[in-house]
Amino acid sequence: MSKEEIVKILVEQVVAMGFKIRLITLDAGFYTVDVLKFISQFKYIIAVPVGDVKVYEEFDGGYMTNSKRDKRDEQVKFRLLVYSKEEVRRNRKTLVYFARATNLDLPKKEVLKLYNKVRSPIETSYRNIKAFLPFTSSTKFVFRTLIFVLAVVFYSLYTVFKGEGGVQVTPSTLVF
Question: How far apart, in whole angstroms, are the C-alpha atoms of residue 164 and residue 116?
Fold first, then answer.
């Protein structure tokens, strides 16, 4: 399936359950022209690889995709936010740039704060699940899937018995 098909199916499933989508946040892996065209009908924030947009400075403004796969009139316009963080690498401070695409009409800091608020728990969950994964060098997809499912089950049991399993999700708090 294409990335656009994956996003469409997930959106259809959420809507079929009776939820209203207020915000879509996606990882950089979904930064494609087709996905952007589809999610433009919603409020969205999507991570963008800085190398793809080639903007290596603080930026907040209009941007158009530059996909070589799509014609010029098929490109997508959106608001691009580029920000930097200072990181220490090999005892040297360097600026690292990150980008977000959005159609939200909010100040740059608010958009970045909102994206981090939604994505941070997801990234933390993946990190915690991976902690339960045994290390394997197997290339067998079925085996790796089985190991991942077991890790999710063990992590879920761990959170239930630890007392963190009582999270309630209501339609008003669900963010896709």
Answer: 21
Rounded Cα–Cα distance for residues 31 and 102 (Å): 11
- Length of the chain as a residue count: 176
Taking Cα atoms as reference points, which of 78, 80, 81 lies closest to residue 40? Answer: 78
CB 136, CB 147: distance < 8 Å? yes
For 4-61, how does the pLDDT look when each residue is reduced to its tens digit (9 = 90+)? 999 999 999 999 999 999 999 999 999 999 999 999 999 999 999 998 999 999 999 9
Question: pLDDT, tens digit, for every residue of 81-116?
Answer: 999 999 888 889 989 999 999 999 999 999 999 999
The two three-digit tokens of residue 108, written as one number: 């740059």
Following CA atoms 149, 152, 158, 160 in sequence, which dihedral angle do they give, to the nearest 10 degrees? -110
The whole-angstrom separation of Cα 48 and Cα 175 is: 20
Asked if residues 10 and 176 have their Cβ atoms less than 8 Å apart, the reply is yes
Positive or negative torsion for Cα 70, 75, 76, 81: positive
User: Taking the model in full, what pTM does it have?
Assistant: 0.71
